[in-house]
Amino acid sequence: MASGRGESTVDVAAQRAAALYTSRRASGASVTLEELIPGTPGSPEFEATRTRAMAFIADDPATQADVRPDARTIADVGPGAPGPDARSTRATAGGIADRATRLESANTIGPGGDGAALPAIEGYEVRSCLGRGGMGAVFEAVQLSTGRRVAVKLMIDAAGVSDAARQRFEREVEVVARLEHPGIVSVVDSGVRKGRYYYVMEYVPGDALDRALPPGKGDVRRVVEMLVEICEAVDYAHQRGVLHRDLKPSNVIVDKRGRPRLLDFGIAKLVDDKTDERHGQRGMTIGQPGQLLGTVAYMSPEQAQARNDLTSVRTDVYALGAIGYELLTGHLPCSAEGSLREVLARIAEVDPAPPSKLRRAVPRDIDAVLLRALEKDPQRRYATAGELAQDLSRWLRGEPVSARRVGPTGRFWRFVKRNRTVSMAAAIAAVVLCSVSTLLIIRIVDERDRAVANFALLRGVLESADPERSNSIVQLLDNATKKIEESPPGVDLAEADVRAILGVVYRKFGEYGKARAQQQRVLEIYDARDEHDTDARAEAIHNLAATLWWEGSYSQAETLYTRSLNMRRRLHRGDHPDVAMSLTHLAACRLRMGRLPEATQLYAEALDMRQRLYKGPHEEVAQALNNVAKCELDAEAFERAEVLFRRALDMIVSLRGEQYAGTAAASQNLGDCLLRRCDAALVQGDGAGARTFAEQADEAFSRALAIRLQMFPRGHHLVAMSRAGQARAKAAHGAASDAREAATQALAMIRQTRPANHPDIVDVLDANAEAHLAAGDVAGALDFLDQALAISGSVEPRRAEIVARRGVLLVRLGRTSEGEQALAEGLAALRQARGTTSVRVTRLEQLAHEAGAPTN
Question: Most buried of 35, 343, 401, 457 (most Cβ within 10 A)?
Fold first, then answer.
């Protein structure tokens, strides 16, 4: 390590410190690198010297004997983490990735090491050591008070580690304790044992991410789905002021349900409340400039250059891109072979190849997304992990991604910018030769990119609209509509694209008339073109049908859904997600129209197709199970329906968690099923069973309501429907006062969010009738049924049931002749639609007998 001419003061001091460190550690002395560096710890010069010294140590062959091949850092150890192998250790023991960290900790292993006694921690039975590293060890244990299996992370040799290491461990406890997310391993307990800090995590059996999805071999769609979930967990941490800074496959455990769980926040940063005026970002509480932290293989350029002053959420975005790149291609974006200096330089300067060059199965859109996440300049990356998740989700949905692809010209200019020592003569020659053509190409590309970016921005603004601010958003939509009416784009397909987005978002906010107008114009544009079957045209027909469905115009919607389905069948022979979607929507339409056999056949076909497409748990499979369950419910196969509804609900929760719109919908449908089982129990004379089903239904509706209230705190028709379900359930198990309150709230909300004659209002009016009847207010119940009948239309058997129930109430009020006539009319129509043995028919006959009315 001799000093050469022209070396800086930092280099000289770093070489001297590295030489002292190497010799003292070789003699068995306990020493930290910081003790050997002159100057004030934390100063820029001190930290720069420390970083250079670590590089010199890593390059010195004499230090290699001090590093055992299996001595992974604590960041590689976690509950359920696999032992080292050729894949999971290539970035640590296999050359470089954790070498600098391990050099300072290789001789500090204490309790729980090979042959050592397991630590005793009050309240826990420690059973085995799962793994160990430079700063701590992880043990499998059982919490005696609960009997649950846990993982205990214990700091090792607290007296021998540096203050910075001790601070990182203490901070990790604080960091993880503030995070409660289904994608993050949670903290159970923490404390101090004989001066050594420890904390207790939930034990997550499973495999490290790169074992669950072997790099370069996994299904591309499955890898992207997994990456979306990881990004969402990281984004959650970011929103709570936590940067991970050491994201890598071994820090993600895939549990037995196939869900990724993020762990190990050992070098995470917490965000202060103060503002860093130099960088325009919130300051960081630990990690000083010049300090090299993290695993090199997944380290961002700013980390590789020890620029922790530039560390931000975009640093974790880079690591997420590196993880996705490796899982899809089997290669790291920058090779981790060679010396530390070489690897850090490569990370800072060498652009990764497009993933599709390494694996042909990777689509070009995923190339664009990952390369944007892996940009050298943090400002060119996705601003948040959430944005990265959104772009990946767009690809999963078959939508355009917002990532800008960097072509050969762009890569060339970035190379020139980084390599300023290129000879002036060569640069001038290149510019002279290429000036005209390059300028033209850049202008064309810029114009195209500007159009794509503007369209992506419009799409992002409108599709991310928040129903809580519906007035301002609807005004935004109105302004956009006015602008496109006044100066439509010169290209008709561009107008169609923008109007299609406006129509979808108008529908999202219940502006059905405006949505219909936009979508009709889109369809006119496509019909006017000399084209027949296209995906865009099929989508336009489908969107118009969906708006008509939400308006309650089922007959018109059915015609368009059929047209769209037939077109998609011609476009996509065999199984295809769009065909399955059309089957589902057409089935829903026919089910609402009372055509159960046709709906059942279509839903079953969609379920079979989605099971073949996705080959395992998937959100669309769960939706299909739920749809088939609706048909079983309508056919009064209550037990089969409940089994399917619960399967769908469990699958949705396992895939997306509790706080998700699909979870609310599945729970709502389960509540409807349980209420129908309550009626069946009453028909059989099982009053206790009926009460149990009603109480379970109340729980299911309450679960759906809790989720929807978080999504729509200012009111929404879905919140109203959950309130109405609650009202019906509470009326069924005797909580009459609570039932009336819930029904009143539901009616006020649904009238604000639905057209006056919408079928949902019929359902809520019916729920109010049940609530008032449970309270003994027969006249009030009749009034609500009269209102429901006035807007119920002619769809059977829903209208027939209302007519029959209204007849029972009229008889109870002494209006016998009028009541018996209505009862006879309603029962006749209901028997024709449902059959004479239907639970609904039998239950109405029971109620009529109780009122003293004939049923023949």
Answer: 343
pLDDT recorded at residue 563: 93
d(CA 232, CA 529): 41
What the block records as the tokens of 303 is 């980390």
Cα distance between residue 344 and residue 351, in whole Å: 13
Estimate the share of the chain in helix, then strand, then coil, as percent rounded to the nearest 5: 60, 5, 30
Tokens describing residue 371: 């390369």
Strand partners, 153: 138, 199
Side-chain-side CA neighbours of residue 751 (13 Å): 10
Higher-confidence residue: 514 or 296?
514
Contacts made by residues 547-550, CB under 8 angstroms, sequence distance 24+: 547/503, 547/507, 547/512, 547/515, 547/516, 547/519, 548/516, 549/585, 549/588, 549/589, 549/592, 550/507, 550/512
In angstroms, the first-to-last Cα distance of the chain is: 105
β-partners of residue 125 are 142
Q: How many Å apart are CA 247 and CA 297, to the nearest integer? A: 10
pLDDT tens per residue, range 439-479? 444 444 444 443 543 454 455 444 444 444 444 667 777 87
Q: What is the pLDDT at residue 74?
A: 26
The C-alpha atoms of residue 718 and residue 768 are separated, in whole angstroms, by 17
Beta carbons of 513 and 553 less than 8 angstroms apart: no
Q: What's the rounded Cα separation, in Å, for the pair 625 and 616?
A: 13
CB atoms within 10 A of CB 435: 10
Radius of gyration in angstroms for the set of CA atoms belonging to the chain, rounded to a whole number:
33
Q: For residue 225, what pLDDT is reported?
A: 93
- Bridge partners of 254, per DSSP, are 207, 260
Closest C-alpha to 157, from 111, 202, 198, 205: 111
Helix or strand run (H / E) with residue 215: none
What phi-psi label fits residue 69: left (phi over 0), alpha (psi between -120 and 50 degrees) or beta?
Answer: alpha
Cα separation, 676 vs 671, in Å, equals 9
Q: Which contiguous run of DSSP H or E holds residue 149?
A: strand 149-155
- pLDDT for the residue 727: 95
Secondary structure of 305-360 as H, E, C letters: CCCHHHCCHHHHHHHHHHHHHHHHHCCCCCCCCCCHHHHHHHHHHCCCCCHHHHCC
Taken in order 110, 115, 119, 120, is the CA torsion positive or negative?
negative
Query: Bigger pLDDT: 61 or 757?
Result: 757
For the stretch 521-578, pLDDT in tens is 988 888 887 777 888 889 999 999 999 988 878 889 999 999 999 999 998 888 899 9
Write out the two tokens for 340.
């530390």
In this predicted model, what pLDDT tens digit does every residue of 411-433 receive, in sequence order?
454 444 445 444 444 444 444 43
- The mean pLDDT of 758-785, rounded to a whole number, is 93
The maximal CA–CA distance of the chain, rounded, in angstroms, is 114
Give the per-residue pLDDT at 475: 77
Q: Are 117 and 70 in contact (CB under 8 A)?
A: no
Give the torsion through C-alpha atoms of 72, 74, 75, 78, to 10 deg: 100
Interior CA angle at 91 toward 90 and 94, to 5°? Answer: 45
User: Burial of 229 by CB count in 10 Å (0-12 exposed, 13-18 middle, 19+ buried)?
Assistant: buried
Query: Which residue type is seen at 450?
Result: R
Cis preceding linkage at 400, omega within 30: no
Sheet holding 124-132, edge to edge: 124-132, 136-143, 149-155, 196-202, 187-193
The SS3 assignment for 153 reads strand
In degrees and rounded to multiples of 5, residue 274 shows phi and psi of -80, 155
Length of the chain: 856
CA distance 399 to 508: 18
Name the 3-class secondary structure at 138.
strand
d(CA 643, CA 629): 8
Two structure tokens written together for 253: 């455990």
pTM exceeds cut of 0.70: no
